[in-house]
Amino acid sequence: MTSADILTVLKTSAETMANKNFYSGLRMKAENVRNIHIHMALQRMMILNRYITLLNKFMKETAPASSREKQMQTYETFKTLFDL
Question: What is the SS3 assignment for 1?
Fold first, then answer.
């Protein structure tokens, strides 16, 4: 597993936990418990932002280099496949 793969898993996990904590906090009746859950969700969001920053640093998203002819061939292939 590469570091990019690990970061992707960590990012997904942090996002899931942030959502769970936030929505769990919204359902709580006691104000102090609600605030704790929302605070935990905010902490997870801060961690998530750090993972995203690391991912952007390690993985530069660039479009693949291809010629105009290759792009047209690909377009024509999918056009005939889907009868466009």
Answer: coil
- The angle at the Cα of 50, spanning 47 to 55, to the nearest 5 degrees, equals 130
Nearest-Å Rg of the Cα atoms of the chain is 21
Longest dimension (CA), the chain: 64
Q: How far apart are CA 26 and CA 19, in angstroms?
A: 11
Q: Is the pLDDT of residue 37 over 90?
A: yes
This prediction's pTM: 0.64
| Interval 60-83: pLDDT, tens | 666 677 889 998 999 999 999 887
The whole-angstrom separation of Cα 78 and Cα 44 is 41
Return the closest-CA partner of residue 41 out of 14, 68, 64. 14
Question: Could you tell me if 55 and 14 are in contact, meaning their C-beta atoms sit under 8 angstroms apart?
Answer: no
